[in-house]
Amino acid sequence: MQRMTREQMAARVAQDIPEGAYVNLGIGVPTLVANFLPKDREIILQSENGILGMGPAPAEADVDWDLINAGKQPVTLLAGGAFFHHGDSFAMMRGSHIDICVLGAFQVSVAGDLANWHTGAPDAIPAVGGAMDLAVGAKQVFVMMDLLTKGGESKLVAKCSYPLTGIACVTRLYTDVAVFELGPDGAEVVEMHGGMTLGELEQMAGVPLRAKASA
Amino acid sequence: MIDKRYDSAREALKDVFDGASIMISGFGDAGMPHELVDALVDQGATDLTVISNNAGGGEIGIAALMKANRVRKVVCSFPRMAQPHHFEARYRAGDVELELVPQGNLACRIQAAGAGLGAVYTPTGYGTLLAEGKETREIDGRMYVLEYPIKADFALIKALTADRWGNLLYRKAGRNFGPIMAMAATTTIAQVSHFAELGEIDPETVITPGIFVQRVVKLQPAVDAASAA
Protein backbone atom coordinates (compact mmCIF):
# COMPACT_ATOMS: atom_id res chain seq x y z
CA MET A 1 0.00 0.00 0.00
CA GLN A 2 1.13 3.50 -0.86
CA ARG A 3 1.85 5.69 2.19
CA MET A 4 2.42 9.41 2.23
CA THR A 5 5.90 10.72 2.89
CA ARG A 6 6.47 13.31 5.60
CA GLU A 7 6.64 15.98 2.93
CA GLN A 8 3.33 14.86 1.42
CA MET A 9 1.75 14.89 4.87
CA ALA A 10 3.13 18.36 5.50
CA ALA A 11 1.73 19.56 2.16
CA ARG A 12 -1.65 18.06 3.02
CA VAL A 13 -1.74 19.85 6.41
CA ALA A 14 -0.73 23.11 4.72
CA GLN A 15 -3.80 22.96 2.44
CA ASP A 16 -6.06 23.21 5.51
CA ILE A 17 -4.45 26.36 6.89
CA PRO A 18 -6.55 29.31 5.74
CA GLU A 19 -5.62 32.83 4.71
CA GLY A 20 -4.98 35.07 7.72
CA ALA A 21 -4.35 32.27 10.22
CA TYR A 22 -1.95 32.64 13.15
CA VAL A 23 -0.18 29.30 13.34
CA ASN A 24 2.31 27.62 15.64
CA LEU A 25 4.25 24.69 14.19
CA GLY A 26 5.65 22.27 16.74
CA ILE A 27 9.26 21.16 16.66
CA GLY A 28 10.25 18.21 14.48
CA VAL A 29 8.11 17.06 11.55
CA PRO A 30 5.43 19.81 11.89
CA THR A 31 8.11 22.39 11.06
CA LEU A 32 8.02 20.99 7.49
CA VAL A 33 4.52 22.45 7.01
CA ALA A 34 6.09 25.90 6.61
CA ASN A 35 7.66 24.78 3.33
CA PHE A 36 4.25 23.99 1.81
CA LEU A 37 2.06 26.93 2.85
CA PRO A 38 0.24 28.17 -0.26
CA LYS A 39 2.05 31.24 -1.59
CA ASP A 40 -1.20 33.07 -2.28
CA ARG A 41 -2.23 33.02 1.40
CA GLU A 42 -0.87 35.35 4.07
CA ILE A 43 -0.28 33.10 7.09
CA ILE A 44 1.57 34.29 10.19
CA LEU A 45 3.81 31.84 12.02
CA GLN A 46 4.31 32.20 15.76
CA SER A 47 7.31 30.77 17.59
CA GLU A 48 6.94 30.14 21.32
CA ASN A 49 10.22 31.87 22.08
CA GLY A 50 8.77 35.24 21.17
CA ILE A 51 8.37 35.68 17.42
CA LEU A 52 5.38 36.49 15.21
CA GLY A 53 5.96 36.64 11.49
CA MET A 54 8.69 34.02 11.46
CA GLY A 55 10.27 33.50 8.05
CA PRO A 56 12.35 30.70 6.51
CA ALA A 57 15.89 29.70 7.42
CA PRO A 58 18.50 32.33 6.52
CA ALA A 59 21.44 32.02 4.17
CA GLU A 60 24.48 30.86 6.10
CA ALA A 61 26.00 34.34 6.10
CA ASP A 62 22.86 35.80 7.70
CA VAL A 63 22.57 33.37 10.62
CA ASP A 64 21.80 35.22 13.86
CA TRP A 65 21.66 33.14 17.05
CA ASP A 66 19.32 35.67 18.66
CA LEU A 67 16.80 34.78 15.95
CA ILE A 68 15.96 31.10 16.36
CA ASN A 69 12.80 28.99 16.36
CA ALA A 70 11.43 26.69 19.07
CA GLY A 71 13.72 23.93 17.80
CA LYS A 72 16.64 26.36 18.27
CA GLN A 73 17.35 26.52 14.53
CA PRO A 74 18.15 29.89 12.89
CA VAL A 75 15.19 31.60 11.21
CA THR A 76 14.37 35.01 9.74
CA LEU A 77 11.77 37.66 10.50
CA LEU A 78 9.31 38.81 7.84
CA ALA A 79 8.46 42.48 7.35
CA GLY A 80 5.69 43.18 9.86
CA GLY A 81 7.05 40.65 12.33
CA ALA A 82 7.35 41.28 16.07
CA PHE A 83 9.27 40.14 19.14
CA PHE A 84 7.74 39.72 22.60
CA HIS A 85 8.50 38.09 25.94
CA HIS A 86 7.46 34.64 27.13
CA GLY A 87 4.51 35.91 29.15
CA ASP A 88 2.93 37.37 26.02
CA SER A 89 3.94 34.40 23.88
CA PHE A 90 2.10 31.91 26.08
CA ALA A 91 -0.84 34.29 26.53
CA MET A 92 -1.19 34.03 22.75
CA MET A 93 -1.65 30.27 23.18
CA ARG A 94 -3.54 30.02 26.45
CA GLY A 95 -5.74 32.97 25.56
CA SER A 96 -6.87 31.28 22.30
CA HIS A 97 -5.30 33.82 19.99
CA ILE A 98 -3.45 31.15 18.00
CA ASP A 99 -5.79 29.72 15.38
CA ILE A 100 -4.00 26.47 14.64
CA CYS A 101 -1.09 24.56 16.07
CA VAL A 102 0.43 21.52 14.43
CA LEU A 103 2.04 18.95 16.71
CA GLY A 104 3.58 15.51 16.52
CA ALA A 105 2.36 12.71 18.79
CA PHE A 106 3.15 9.32 20.33
CA GLN A 107 -0.57 8.58 20.59
CA VAL A 108 -3.89 10.27 19.95
CA SER A 109 -7.25 8.97 21.18
CA VAL A 110 -10.40 8.93 19.06
CA ALA A 111 -11.82 11.59 21.41
CA GLY A 112 -8.83 13.85 20.75
CA ASP A 113 -6.69 13.20 23.83
CA LEU A 114 -3.04 13.84 23.03
CA ALA A 115 0.10 12.10 24.32
CA ASN A 116 3.27 13.62 22.94
CA TRP A 117 5.66 14.61 25.74
CA HIS A 118 6.69 11.53 27.66
CA THR A 119 6.89 7.82 26.95
CA GLY A 120 6.54 7.09 30.64
CA ALA A 121 9.68 4.92 30.50
CA PRO A 122 11.19 4.84 34.00
CA ASP A 123 14.66 5.93 32.83
CA ALA A 124 13.45 8.72 30.54
CA ILE A 125 14.18 12.30 31.55
CA PRO A 126 10.88 14.04 30.86
CA ALA A 127 10.71 17.33 28.95
CA VAL A 128 7.48 19.13 28.14
CA GLY A 129 8.33 22.55 26.71
CA GLY A 130 5.27 24.35 25.35
CA ALA A 131 3.31 21.25 24.26
CA MET A 132 0.71 21.38 27.04
CA ASP A 133 0.08 25.09 26.55
CA LEU A 134 -0.43 24.66 22.82
CA ALA A 135 -2.67 21.62 23.32
CA VAL A 136 -4.97 23.45 25.70
CA GLY A 137 -4.84 26.89 24.14
CA ALA A 138 -4.81 26.84 20.34
CA LYS A 139 -8.28 27.11 18.77
CA GLN A 140 -7.54 24.03 16.67
CA VAL A 141 -4.89 21.38 17.31
CA PHE A 142 -3.75 19.42 14.28
CA VAL A 143 -1.60 16.35 14.81
CA MET A 144 0.70 14.91 12.17
CA MET A 145 2.03 11.38 12.62
CA ASP A 146 2.36 7.97 11.00
CA LEU A 147 -0.71 5.88 11.84
CA LEU A 148 1.41 2.94 12.97
CA THR A 149 4.49 2.65 15.13
CA LYS A 150 7.57 1.01 13.63
CA GLY A 151 6.38 -2.15 15.39
CA GLY A 152 3.02 -1.96 13.56
CA GLU A 153 0.84 -0.79 16.45
CA SER A 154 -1.79 1.85 15.83
CA LYS A 155 -1.10 5.25 17.39
CA LEU A 156 -4.78 6.17 17.07
CA VAL A 157 -6.21 4.53 20.16
CA ALA A 158 -9.40 4.23 22.20
CA LYS A 159 -7.49 5.52 25.23
CA CYS A 160 -3.89 6.73 25.43
CA SER A 161 -1.52 4.52 27.40
CA TYR A 162 1.25 7.14 27.41
CA PRO A 163 1.03 10.12 29.80
CA LEU A 164 -1.35 12.77 28.45
CA THR A 165 -0.41 16.20 27.16
CA GLY A 166 -3.99 17.42 26.99
CA ILE A 167 -7.56 16.13 27.11
CA ALA A 168 -9.95 16.24 24.12
CA CYS A 169 -7.82 18.83 22.37
CA VAL A 170 -6.90 17.34 18.97
CA THR A 171 -9.40 18.32 16.28
CA ARG A 172 -7.73 16.84 13.20
CA LEU A 173 -5.27 14.00 12.72
CA TYR A 174 -3.16 13.79 9.57
CA THR A 175 -1.49 10.43 9.04
CA ASP A 176 0.39 8.73 6.24
CA VAL A 177 -2.71 6.76 5.27
CA ALA A 178 -5.73 8.91 6.17
CA VAL A 179 -7.01 12.18 7.61
CA PHE A 180 -9.36 12.02 10.61
CA GLU A 181 -11.61 14.38 12.53
CA LEU A 182 -11.67 13.60 16.24
CA GLY A 183 -14.12 14.53 18.94
CA PRO A 184 -16.58 13.36 21.58
CA ASP A 185 -18.33 11.14 19.03
CA GLY A 186 -15.12 9.38 18.02
CA ALA A 187 -13.04 9.33 14.86
CA GLU A 188 -14.41 10.26 11.45
CA VAL A 189 -12.44 9.55 8.30
CA VAL A 190 -12.17 12.66 6.16
CA GLU A 191 -10.09 11.05 3.41
CA MET A 192 -8.02 7.97 2.72
CA HIS A 193 -4.86 7.57 0.65
CA GLY A 194 -3.58 4.55 -1.18
CA GLY A 195 -6.89 2.97 -2.18
CA MET A 196 -7.88 1.35 1.12
CA THR A 197 -11.45 0.57 2.05
CA LEU A 198 -12.88 1.92 5.30
CA GLY A 199 -12.91 -1.64 6.64
CA GLU A 200 -9.20 -2.11 5.88
CA LEU A 201 -8.37 1.22 7.52
CA GLU A 202 -10.44 0.30 10.56
CA GLN A 203 -8.59 -2.98 10.87
CA MET A 204 -5.26 -1.19 10.63
CA ALA A 205 -6.24 1.48 13.16
CA GLY A 206 -7.82 -0.97 15.56
CA VAL A 207 -10.53 1.49 16.61
CA PRO A 208 -14.07 2.04 15.34
CA LEU A 209 -14.18 4.52 12.45
CA ARG A 210 -16.91 6.03 10.38
CA ALA A 211 -16.79 7.95 7.15
CA LYS A 212 -17.41 11.66 7.41
CA ALA A 213 -20.69 12.46 5.71
CA SER A 214 -19.12 14.63 3.02
CA ALA A 215 -16.12 12.34 2.44
CA MET B 1 22.72 59.63 42.16
CA ILE B 2 21.28 56.32 41.08
CA ASP B 3 23.86 54.30 39.25
CA LYS B 4 23.15 50.59 38.80
CA ARG B 5 26.20 49.99 36.63
CA TYR B 6 28.82 47.54 37.91
CA ASP B 7 32.36 47.25 36.61
CA SER B 8 32.55 43.48 36.63
CA ALA B 9 30.41 40.37 36.83
CA ARG B 10 32.36 39.42 39.96
CA GLU B 11 31.27 42.59 41.76
CA ALA B 12 27.69 42.25 40.54
CA LEU B 13 27.46 38.68 41.88
CA LYS B 14 29.33 39.26 45.15
CA ASP B 15 26.39 38.62 47.51
CA VAL B 16 24.95 35.51 45.86
CA PHE B 17 24.69 33.11 48.78
CA ASP B 18 24.62 29.33 49.21
CA GLY B 19 21.07 28.04 48.88
CA ALA B 20 19.91 31.00 46.76
CA SER B 21 17.23 30.65 44.11
CA ILE B 22 18.39 32.00 40.76
CA MET B 23 16.41 32.70 37.62
CA ILE B 24 18.42 32.55 34.41
CA SER B 25 16.91 33.97 31.21
CA GLY B 26 17.37 32.48 27.76
CA PHE B 27 15.86 30.02 25.34
CA GLY B 28 18.65 27.93 23.92
CA ASP B 29 21.53 30.37 23.57
CA ALA B 30 19.33 33.37 22.70
CA GLY B 31 19.10 35.69 25.71
CA MET B 32 21.25 33.33 27.79
CA PRO B 33 23.65 35.31 30.02
CA HIS B 34 26.43 32.74 29.63
CA GLU B 35 29.20 35.10 30.79
CA LEU B 36 27.30 36.07 33.94
CA VAL B 37 26.61 32.40 34.73
CA ASP B 38 30.25 31.50 34.11
CA ALA B 39 31.16 34.22 36.62
CA LEU B 40 28.73 32.63 39.08
CA VAL B 41 30.65 29.36 38.73
CA ASP B 42 33.81 31.26 39.68
CA GLN B 43 32.00 33.04 42.53
CA GLY B 44 31.44 29.67 44.19
CA ALA B 45 27.89 29.81 45.61
CA THR B 46 26.40 26.34 45.88
CA ASP B 47 23.21 24.45 46.76
CA LEU B 48 21.41 26.66 44.25
CA THR B 49 17.91 26.38 42.84
CA VAL B 50 18.03 27.30 39.15
CA ILE B 51 14.87 28.44 37.40
CA SER B 52 15.36 28.52 33.63
CA ASN B 53 13.70 27.14 30.51
CA ASN B 54 16.48 24.59 29.92
CA ALA B 55 18.93 22.79 32.16
CA GLY B 56 22.11 23.65 30.31
CA GLY B 57 23.83 22.22 27.26
CA GLY B 58 27.44 21.91 26.16
CA GLU B 59 30.12 23.15 28.55
CA ILE B 60 29.31 26.77 29.42
CA GLY B 61 26.73 28.64 31.50
CA ILE B 62 24.19 26.44 33.31
CA ALA B 63 26.02 23.31 32.09
CA ALA B 64 29.17 24.56 33.84
CA LEU B 65 27.16 25.10 37.06
CA MET B 66 25.91 21.51 36.74
CA LYS B 67 29.38 20.17 36.10
CA ALA B 68 30.65 21.95 39.23
CA ASN B 69 27.71 20.41 41.18
CA ARG B 70 26.44 23.75 42.45
CA VAL B 71 22.78 23.08 41.67
CA ARG B 72 20.44 21.31 44.07
CA LYS B 73 17.25 21.79 42.09
CA VAL B 74 16.26 22.81 38.57
CA VAL B 75 12.84 24.24 37.72
CA CYS B 76 12.47 24.13 33.93
CA SER B 77 10.25 23.09 31.03
CA PHE B 78 12.74 21.36 28.77
CA PRO B 79 15.86 19.83 30.33
CA ARG B 80 16.72 17.94 27.15
CA MET B 81 18.41 20.56 25.00
CA ALA B 82 21.39 19.83 22.79
CA GLN B 83 24.26 18.17 24.66
CA PRO B 84 22.61 17.94 28.09
CA HIS B 85 25.26 15.53 29.42
CA HIS B 86 26.18 17.52 32.53
CA PHE B 87 22.56 17.84 33.64
CA GLU B 88 21.84 14.20 32.82
CA ALA B 89 24.83 12.97 34.81
CA ARG B 90 23.80 14.98 37.89
CA TYR B 91 20.16 13.98 37.52
CA ARG B 92 20.91 10.28 37.18
CA ALA B 93 23.31 10.45 40.13
CA GLY B 94 20.55 11.99 42.25
CA ASP B 95 22.56 15.20 42.80
CA VAL B 96 19.89 17.44 41.30
CA GLU B 97 16.14 17.47 41.70
CA LEU B 98 13.99 18.33 38.67
CA GLU B 99 10.68 20.20 38.83
CA LEU B 100 9.26 20.00 35.32
CA VAL B 101 6.86 22.83 34.52
CA PRO B 102 5.01 23.40 31.23
CA GLN B 103 6.64 26.39 29.58
CA GLY B 104 3.59 28.64 29.72
CA ASN B 105 3.01 27.77 33.37
CA LEU B 106 6.64 28.60 34.06
CA ALA B 107 6.03 31.99 32.43
CA CYS B 108 2.74 32.75 34.19
CA ARG B 109 4.01 31.61 37.58
CA ILE B 110 7.01 33.91 37.19
CA GLN B 111 4.66 36.69 36.11
CA ALA B 112 2.42 36.03 39.12
CA ALA B 113 5.39 36.48 41.44
CA GLY B 114 6.41 39.69 39.73
CA ALA B 115 2.89 41.04 39.88
CA GLY B 116 2.34 40.15 43.53
CA LEU B 117 -0.44 37.64 42.89
CA GLY B 118 -1.10 34.82 45.36
CA ALA B 119 -1.57 32.15 42.67
CA VAL B 120 -2.98 31.60 39.21
CA TYR B 121 -5.57 29.21 37.80
CA THR B 122 -4.20 27.89 34.50
CA PRO B 123 -5.83 25.45 32.08
CA THR B 124 -2.43 24.10 31.02
CA GLY B 125 -1.62 20.65 32.33
CA TYR B 126 -5.11 19.86 33.59
CA GLY B 127 -5.62 16.09 33.70
CA THR B 128 -1.92 15.34 33.19
CA LEU B 129 0.89 13.97 35.38
CA LEU B 130 2.20 17.51 35.86
CA ALA B 131 -0.99 18.57 37.65
CA GLU B 132 -1.23 15.51 39.88
CA GLY B 133 -2.18 16.36 43.46
CA LYS B 134 -2.84 19.99 42.59
CA GLU B 135 -6.05 21.84 43.40
CA THR B 136 -8.38 22.24 40.42
CA ARG B 137 -11.45 24.36 39.81
CA GLU B 138 -14.10 24.69 37.15
CA ILE B 139 -14.51 28.30 36.04
CA ASP B 140 -17.09 29.16 33.41
CA GLY B 141 -17.24 25.56 32.19
CA ARG B 142 -13.51 25.03 31.83
CA MET B 143 -11.12 23.19 34.16
CA TYR B 144 -8.11 24.96 35.69
CA VAL B 145 -5.16 23.98 37.90
CA LEU B 146 -4.03 26.15 40.81
CA GLU B 147 -0.36 27.03 40.40
CA TYR B 148 1.73 29.09 42.81
CA PRO B 149 4.12 31.93 41.94
CA ILE B 150 7.79 31.30 41.31
CA LYS B 151 10.04 34.00 42.72
CA ALA B 152 13.79 34.11 43.15
CA ASP B 153 16.52 35.75 45.17
CA PHE B 154 18.41 36.68 42.01
CA ALA B 155 17.64 36.89 38.29
CA LEU B 156 20.54 36.77 35.84
CA ILE B 157 19.33 38.06 32.50
CA LYS B 158 20.78 39.18 29.20
CA ALA B 159 19.75 42.36 27.45
CA LEU B 160 21.26 44.49 24.70
CA THR B 161 21.39 47.98 26.19
CA ALA B 162 21.03 49.48 29.67
CA ASP B 163 21.25 52.98 31.11
CA ARG B 164 22.38 53.74 34.66
CA TRP B 165 18.78 53.60 35.92
CA GLY B 166 18.49 50.04 34.65
CA ASN B 167 16.12 50.60 31.73
CA LEU B 168 16.61 47.75 29.28
CA LEU B 169 16.36 46.99 25.59
CA TYR B 170 16.69 43.44 24.32
CA ARG B 171 17.76 41.91 21.03
CA LYS B 172 15.34 39.89 18.85
CA ALA B 173 14.21 36.55 20.32
CA GLY B 174 16.81 37.02 23.06
CA ARG B 175 14.09 38.87 25.00
CA ASN B 176 12.22 35.66 25.96
CA PHE B 177 12.25 35.28 29.78
CA GLY B 178 14.25 38.44 30.58
CA PRO B 179 11.41 40.93 31.17
CA ILE B 180 9.31 38.61 33.34
CA MET B 181 12.24 37.26 35.38
CA ALA B 182 13.43 40.80 36.05
CA MET B 183 10.09 41.42 37.78
CA ALA B 184 10.13 38.26 39.89
CA ALA B 185 13.53 38.43 41.61
CA THR B 186 14.66 40.39 44.64
CA THR B 187 17.88 41.32 42.85
CA THR B 188 17.97 41.38 39.06
CA ILE B 189 21.37 41.52 37.42
CA ALA B 190 21.39 42.27 33.70
CA GLN B 191 24.30 41.49 31.43
CA VAL B 192 24.30 43.93 28.50
CA SER B 193 26.42 44.68 25.45
CA HIS B 194 26.05 48.46 25.61
CA PHE B 195 25.56 51.22 28.14
CA ALA B 196 23.44 54.20 27.07
CA GLU B 197 23.26 57.68 28.62
CA LEU B 198 20.05 58.57 30.46
CA GLY B 199 17.53 59.73 27.87
CA GLU B 200 19.32 58.02 25.05
CA ILE B 201 16.90 55.09 25.09
CA ASP B 202 13.59 56.28 23.61
CA PRO B 203 11.14 55.98 26.53
CA GLU B 204 8.50 54.68 24.11
CA THR B 205 10.70 51.68 23.39
CA VAL B 206 11.89 50.73 26.89
CA ILE B 207 11.02 47.05 27.36
CA THR B 208 11.99 46.62 31.02
CA PRO B 209 11.66 49.78 33.12
CA GLY B 210 14.59 50.25 35.52
CA ILE B 211 12.47 49.69 38.64
CA PHE B 212 12.74 45.95 37.95
CA VAL B 213 16.52 45.98 37.57
CA GLN B 214 19.02 46.40 40.41
CA ARG B 215 22.37 45.91 38.67
CA VAL B 216 23.69 46.14 35.14
CA VAL B 217 27.07 45.02 33.93
CA LYS B 218 28.59 45.33 30.49
CA LEU B 219 30.07 42.04 29.36
CA GLN B 220 31.34 41.18 25.95
CA PRO B 221 29.77 37.89 24.89
CA ALA B 222 32.48 35.37 24.00
CA VAL B 223 30.56 34.80 20.79
CA ASP B 224 28.58 37.58 19.17
CA ALA B 225 25.15 36.23 18.21
CA ALA B 226 24.93 38.20 14.98
CA SER B 227 28.23 36.91 13.65
CA ALA B 228 28.29 33.39 15.04
CA ALA B 229 27.45 31.02 12.24
- The CATH level-2 architecture of chain B is identified as 3-Layer(aba) Sandwich
Query: Sheet with the most strands of chain B?
Result: 8 strands, parallel
What is the oligomer described by this structure? heterodimer
Order of helices and strands of chain B: EHEHEHEHEHEEEEEEHEEE
End-to-end distance of chain B = 42 Å
Helix proportion range of chain A: 10-25%
Number of helices of chain A: 4
Tally of domains of chain A: 1
Order of adjacent strands in the largest pleated sheet of chain A:
4-3-2-1-5-8-10-11-12-13
Number of helices of chain B: 6
User: Looking at the structure, what is the overall shape of chain A?
Assistant: globular
CATH topology of chain A: Glutaconate Coenzyme A-transferase
User: How large a portion of the residues of chain B is in β-strands, by DSSP E?
Assistant: 25-35%
Give the class of chain B from helix and strand content and strand pairing. Answer: alpha/beta
Radius of gyration from the alpha-carbon trace of chain B, in angstroms: 18 Å
Low-pLDDT residue spans of chain B: none
Determine the CATH superfamily of chain A: Glutaconate Coenzyme A-transferase
Low-confidence stretches of chain A: none
From the helix content, strand content and strand pairing of chain A, which structural class follows?
alpha/beta
